Amino acid sequence: MKSHFKFTKGQRSGIFLLLVIIVVIQCVYFFVDFYQKDIVVNPDELVSFQNEIDSLRQAEIEARQTKIFPFNPNYITDYKGYTLGMSPDEIERLLKFREQNKWVNSAKQFQEVTKVSDSLLNAISPYFKFPEWVTNPKPKKSFNYQNNTPKTYNQKLDLNTVTAKQLQRVNGIGEKLSDRIIKFRNKFKGGFIADVQLQDVYGISPEVMERLLNQFTVKTPRQIDIINLNTATIAQLVTIQHIDYEIAYEIIDQRTLREGFKSLDDLIKVKNFPVDKIEIIKLYLTLN
């Protein structure tokens, strides 16, 4: 035990300093008043601070919620439907409906297809965004289409003087097609030679062609120089629509082999001849 109470001079100084510190702390504790005075709180400021805290808390809650942006309900995926609150069955009904290449064009139709509840529909329908042509369809232009019953030659209008508006009276001919017909006609000084030239106008189906020729025909054909097929030169042949230099050379070779053509229809036997345009080509040719 004696060894525990033997200290060096430095150790004794340290112990003495420690005791002094303890005594000072005890004195401070007993003689210094640490009691805090009552804090005066302004109720109005407290309410103001509380309201600000509540608003910040609400803003944080709203920021964490899933935001919904305008969308086309026709393209709802499984995940999108889940985030909107739709059940798997409701999502499946919509997907099957779309697989039939059908489209939802209103909130009412969306509910009819998916069977969603009124509450869910009211929550998500304000975000539905349908194409402009669905929400604001343009009124269809009404034309007084002419009767498709064939008219007599005297009753028909001349294709070389008819206007685009008159052409649009035929069912199947709109603004673009009528303008295309007029532009093609005006490429030639004098217009069309015959009705068959309408085949060169892009976009005219056989049905529309039939209805068109029931109402119109070429009455004042463009004057052209008719070329003798059996004496024509290459320079003359290439002036004909749909005949280029290559075909012109082939025609001359075939004419030489045959010692002259016996019929204009023999042209279809010429190599690379545009058979589908033969009726137009024949307008420029003769065998006499």
Automatic annotation (TrEMBL):
- Give TM segment ranges: 12-32
Domain of life according to the entry: Bacteria
- Output the GO biological process annotations, alphabetical, semicolon-separated: DNA repair; protein secretion by the type II secretion system
GO terms under cellular component: type II protein secretion system complex
Protein name as catalogued: Helix-hairpin-helix domain-containing protein
GO molecular function per UniProt: DNA binding
The UniProt record lists the Helix-hairpin-helix DNA-binding motif class domain at 165-184, 196-215
- Species source reads Pontimicrobium aquaticum
Give the UniProt keywords, A-Z.
Membrane, Transmembrane, Transmembrane helix
Keyword Transmembrane, does the record have it?
yes
Asked if the keyword Transmembrane helix belongs to this entry, the reply reads yes
